[in-house]
Amino acid sequence: MADPRGFLKVRERQTQPRRPVPVRIMDWKEVYEAQEKGVLKEQAGRCMDCGIPFCHQGCPLGNLIPEWNDLMYRHKGREAIERLHATNNFPEFTGRLCPAPCEASCVLGINQPAVTIKQVEVSIIDQAFDENWVTPHAPERLTDKTIAVVGSGPAGLAVAQQLTRAGHTVAVYERDDKIGGLLRYGIPDFKMEKLQVDRRLDQMRAEGTRFRTGVEVGRDISWEQLRRRYDAVVVATGSTVPRDLPIPGRELDGVHFAMEYLVQANRVVAGEQVKRQINAEGKHVIILGGGDTGADCLGTAHRQQAASVTTLAIGKQPPAERAAHQPWPMYPTLFETASAHEEGGERTYLASTVEFVGENGKLTGVKIAETEFVDGRRVPKAGTERVLPADLVFLALGFTGPEPAGLAEQVQAEFDERTNVVRDGYYMTKTPGVFAAGDAGRGQSLIVWAIAEGRACAAAVDQWLMGSTRLPAPVAPSDRAITPL
Question: What is the pLDDT at residue 484?
């Protein structure tokens, strides 16, 4: 335990400082600054001897949170990163991008602000990289087994690293020109600079993982060819089919999916040339959807110097505090202010989008109405329609599942009612030797779940190939109990 009386002596929750808004919207660097060591020690010391650390239950990875809080309190950073890496392959990703369900489960959070778990986590890994404590862990001996991992997001990378360390030969296939999936091209640099991805990939290459970019499986190479070439195949393509909004005016020039916009912006920030880039400079922007993707569009539009940005959400504004039906230690739905929301723009709730308005094929506005609830359905309220001026609209309404890309025909994969790949309790699809991990099988979810599923899927693959495994398996793909192989 860090400090037996720490949570009594330091009652204030102090998170990482953010750079001033007028400064940070002029560049694409990360919003957060490093926490001062004295403050970090105090915050880690607030972790209490709660007996049963519910933060373990709240974290899909089962992170050993009290242990590394104690180690950081005692300035033992090297031991802390060892405990953190024991359950999490990529804390530099989760420490920046995860919404921290562990903090919602913190016992201290019952009657005080929760421990700043996410802040301590990212401080541990940043120090580890600065001190060169993150080194390759190459396997002691190699097996004769080969595995293809399709998709290089957090789930695919976690699968690949775990199986490489188990001694298998692993090749990661990525259709883009660089490895990282949405970590590379979907997450803006102001949330996570791509240095974080690149230096982890350097470690993985040194360990023996092989990467194949610019290869779209199902088109450039068939799934059947992969099955013949490798002993096992892991589908980790993510949930990338965006949810559309088929209302009048959808075809107008100026209405785009959010990810189309974000990918282009990230490529430009990386120094690439993008033809006919969607640019918000000087334009009135409306974002449909109030989640993380919408916030990423908001921050990007600010940095492109949009004339105005409005975020519309069809539902009610979430409460500022826990609702009665979401008691501790459940993860509550709360009204949150992301860094992008601090930078400007309007947020409107109970706004139903009725029509996209335009002239000569170009978007000029969005007709909205107040949302009312009829028989449990959210519908536009008659007589409340109005038109908001808009030059650009970004649809940030979530994703509906993975792209089939030959899975159904070449692998005979089945899809459930949510269009996710069906797999059994060991992450295997209907086809023996073909597994699915992360959002491709789970549906759109958190980065921490993607890594957890990647680690568990790797253990299942290793078990299937070798008859036993020493790899940890933190989660099953469903809530039902499973019997070990």
Answer: 32
Tokens coding 311: 């975020």
Q: pLDDT tens across 38-58, in order?
A: 999 999 999 988 889 999 889
Residue 38, C-beta contacts closer than 8 angstroms, at least 6 positions apart: none
Q: Tell me if 239 sits within 8 A of 183, measured CB to CB.
A: no
Rounded alpha-carbon distances, angstroms, from residue 65 to 54, 68, 110, 340 = 10, 6, 17, 28
Q: Are 357 and 364 in contact (CB under 8 A)?
A: yes
The per-residue pLDDT for range 70-97, each reduced to its tens digit, is 999 999 999 999 999 999 999 999 999 9
State how far the Cα of 215 lies from the Cα of 151, in Å rounded to an integer.
Answer: 10
The set of residues, in sequence order, having a beta carbon less than 8 Å from that of 96 and lying 6+ positions away, is 30, 32, 122, 191, 192, 196
Ramachandran assignment for 98, one of left (phi > 0), alpha (psi -120 to 50 degrees), beta (any other): beta
b/e burial code for range 60-98 (CB count within 10 A of at least 16 → b): bbbbbbbbbbbbbbeeebeebbbbbbebbbbbbbbbbbb
Do 258 and 187 contact (CB within 8 A), yes or no? no
SS3 235: strand
pLDDT in tens, 440-460: 999 999 999 999 999 999 999
CB atoms within 10 A of CB 34: 13
Spell out a b/e string for 133-159, using b for 16 or more CB atoms within 10 Å of the CB, else e.
bbeeeeeeeeeebbbbbbbbbbbbbbb
In contact, 297 and 396? CB cutoff 8 Å: yes
12 three-class SS = coil
Q: Calculate what percentage of the chain has a pLDDT beyond 90.
A: 90
Contacts of residue 208, Cβ cutoff 8 Å, sequence gap at least 6: 138, 139, 164, 169, 170
Angle between helices 154-165 and 195-207 (to 10 degrees): 30
- pLDDT at 437 exceeding the cut of 60: yes
Identity (one letter) of the amino acid at 481? A
The 10 Å CB-count burial string (b at 16+, else e) for 1-12 is ebbeebbeebee
Given a contact cutoff of 8 angstroms between Cβ atoms, the answer to whether 386 and 223 are in contact is: no
For 273, the token pair is 């040339």
What is the residue whose two structure tokens read 């007028």?
22
What is the arithmetic mean of pLDDT over 474-479?
62
